[in-house]
Amino acid sequence: MAIVGAGLIGLATAYRLLEQRPSLRLVVLEKEDAVGRHQSSHNSGVLHAGVYYQPGSLKAGLCRSGKAALEAFAVEHGIKFDRCGKLIVALDSRELPRLQALFDRAVANGVPDVRLVGPAELKDVEPHVAGIAALAVPDTGIIDFARVTQEYAAEVARRGGEIRMGWTATHVADVGSRAAVVTDRKDVGAAAVVTCTGLQADRFGDHAGPRIVPFRGDYYTLTPGARHLVRGLIYPVPDPELPFLGVHFTPRIDGAVWAGPNAVLAFAREGYHRRSFRPDQVAETVAYRGFRRLARRYWRAGAVELWRDVSKRAFLRQLQRYVPELEAAHLARGPSGVRAQAVGADGTLLDDFCILETRRTVHVRNAPSPGATASLAIGQHIAARVVQKLDQ
């Protein structure tokens, strides 16, 4: 049994498989020199409660079960997490219908203790935040997903799994009754193969499926003297006309507070800096008709995001809509992440988790947020499919 990718989902899948089949010979192949080098460690660290997702979708179901499983795992392994709570803040009356729709969706998804609050209670919870109403989601939390990834890897090793660093897979194929992973070292044969490759997900499986378009998100961090302005997670009401959520405030488990992110096209799939540039990957993205259709649909929003990327003042103005007391001196340049966004040929963003399979392979083609929160549930979901293949 082989798994390509030692991020959260690849390692969670390995862990779940070894739970079910303790005698299974399993190898995880990872091209980097350490586990979780990309999306698993370049994320906001939020434990999502399941507010946003379409009831009945994979996201909705696996987020709730995955969060419970991850919190239990964290307790067992001494990983600190904090249910600090979230406020989704409406700034004006135009956002109130969308806020009510979010409340209805959260209730349908079984999110506990969610409630609508008015301006007085909003100020009690977050004294420095502007807004006329909010959705309070006390079950939302924060955790260090890089630490979670390391503990998943440790569990895989304890259970007899092997993790091979520096093995770059280039192709996976069904070969008769088995599957083969072609790598830069040597081929690896297996009874079944799972690919969990995040930003490289469309390199494996059916190349006619959705393609990955990478979007970089940059954060500012609040200086220590400004952290008191934010107590918990502060989010905007999502605009269904826009492809991404918008800037928000995220306390971190280490005490820091992040503000952002923006969302701009990344010029390298694993490029975490503004100067990161891979001309071959840019050409590949621009040549994809799905991206061109996406760009035509959202070019105005894209231009705004790009301006905020280069203008700290523009970024600050967006943040001040929610926390008016913020000043430019309160913001320092923070980290960046790159989101693997699956885009269909018609230019639509693939919203739900997408897991494709052949006779001997399973390919995770889309696992955006809340993929980290749901990782153990996604791993269980994939493991069930793999066990069926192993038993054939």
Biggest sheet descriptor: 6 strands, mixed
Catalogue the unreliable spans: none
Q: What's the level 1 CATH class of the largest domain?
A: Alpha Beta
Mean pLDDT, to the nearest integer, reads 96
Question: Which CATH-level-2 architecture of the largest domain?
Answer: 3-Layer(bba) Sandwich
Q: Order of strands across the biggest sheet?
A: 9-2-1-13-21-20
Quote the beta fraction.
25-35%
What is the number of helical segments per DSSP (H or I, 4+ residues)?
A: 9
**Radius of gyration using CA atoms only:** 21 Å
As for the number of domains, it is 3
Order of helices and strands: EHEEHEEHEHEEHEEEEEEEEEEHHHEEEH
Give a count of the beta strands, DSSP E runs of length 2 or more: 21
Distance between the termini: 14 Å
Q: How would you describe the oligomerization state of the chains in this entry?
A: single chain
The global form is globular
- CATH-defined superfamily of the largest domain: FAD/NAD(P)-binding domain
**Overall SS class:** alpha+beta
How would you characterize this protein structure?
With 392 residues, the chain is α+β, with helices and mostly antiparallel strands. It folds into three domains: 1-82 and 142-209 and 352-392, FAD/NAD(P)-binding domain, CATH 3.50.50; 86-138, no CATH class; 211-349, D-Amino Acid Oxidase, Chain A, domain 2 (2-Layer Sandwich), CATH 3.30.9. The chain is 31% helix and 25% strand. It has nine helices and 21 strands. The strands form five sheets. Strands 9-2-1-13-21-20 form a six-stranded mixed β-sheet, with helices on one face. Strands 14, 16, 17, 18 and 19 form a five-stranded antiparallel β-sheet that branches. Helix 7 packs across helix 8.
